[in-house]
Amino acid sequence: MGTLAVVVPAATGFRSLELATVAAIAPFVLVAALGVTVIGQDSRLFDLFARPGDYEDGKLYGLAAFSLAAAGLALLAVRFSLPVPVFVGVVVIVAYGNLGQRLAYTVRSDEVVATAGFVLVGFVAGVAGQVLGTQIQAAVGEGAAAVDLPLVLFLAASGAFVAALLRSVLFERDDPLVMLTVGLLLWLFFELDPSVTTQRVVIALAVTVLLGYLSYALDTASLPGMLTGVLLSFLTIVLGGFGWFAMLITFFGLGGLSTKYRYEEKLERGIAEENEGARGSGNVLANSIVALFAVVAAAASPSHIAVNPLLFFYAFAGAVAAAMTDTFSSEFGGLYDNPRLITTLRPVEPGTDGGVTWQGVAAGAVGAGIIAGIAALTQDIGTVGGSVILVCGLVGMTVDSLLGATVEGSVVGNQGVNMLATLAAALTGAGVVLAVGLL
Predict the structure, then answer these.
(1) Domain assignment of residue 95, given as a range
(2) Are 385 and 315 in contact (CB under 8 A)?
(3) What's the average pLDDT block by block, 10 residues per block, for the chain (439 residues)?
(4) 268 and 389 fall within a common domain
(5) d(Cα 81, Cα 101) in Å, to the nearest integer?
(6) Is residue 162 included in any domain, yes or no?
(7) Which residues contact 206 (CB under 8 A, 6 or more apart)?
(8) What's this model's pTM, rounded to 2 decimal places?
């Protein structure tokens, strides 16, 4: 059914926009109608396409929803500015990714192997779909035949990672949501028109997949957490650079190991992370989402955003430094007795939100110093720039503790506090460099 996407680039050849629209969405609407009206539960086609919930309903609602989501994206491609080859790539990433996942399950009943099958087959299908879509459009006289291979590889890899991540946290019948999300995200990346090279994309794929596997094998991240880290690392290398990635992977690596440090003792004290210290996607995103926005914004500047990209670098580095300080201060500081509430300095029980120890503050400062040092070594920012990033980390750690002592649990959760702390650090970095004229 996903292969029907190749009809859309051919439909763009019609001179009438209305006729092109009908030709593009009609096959998907027809499939949806057949799924809920004609194909009965006693049909072999029903067993072929049915999702688990479809057996309860007696209708192929999963297939219908998939087809209608594809029709919606097809409408965006024909009537609006969603690139048609990107549309084809998105649909086949999800469709063939699901096929790859099923094939992997027949080889080995393992969640990681199945996800690897989804990513691999989805990536290959995404590349082929974009190339085929470009060629078909060119054949009907509606586009150039030249293929921007680095961009095609980047979009296919990003789409496969995002789709696999969403599939790992959603139900199988949520494929329409997966498809629409991936479609809008790749549309954004296409419009950014990042300056990427084939070599960088290939290196980014190799490095991030390897590190993602290691993080899962060492139990420092759950499967969704690993996929989130892989996606963030891949985007950071391609859109930011290896210096940016060095900071991010240092946080992921040392942060994960610090969580495992004396884990049994932390468990006894009631301060250990859940899932044996394996961080999930929510935790990874809470600590990294601000940095991700900074990377994307840097790629969009100054062509799309009239701002010096260096401003977003400081925001990125400040957010990562804050995440590192918070992790170090809590994971190491929580092992010591006599913490005090940051707002009143009164003694509190270990693990109390907002409780700090001098050992934790020192550990957090070391974490900020590590990120600042990497930034100074990999970027031309000098000692002053490194000092700004160090300050950002300390600001983030302080904001995290203040929020923990005041609003955590009643207004926002732990992940919300982490995100707000990294946001405060990012804004501090951007604000300081503007104030002192480092740009």
Answers:
(1) 1-207
(2) no
(3) 92 90 94 88 85 82 92 94 94 95 89 91 96 92 82 96 89 85 94 89 91 77 82 92 92 84 74 60 82 92 85 95 92 83 86 85 93 92 91 94 87 88 94 85
(4) yes
(5) 31
(6) yes
(7) none
(8) 0.89
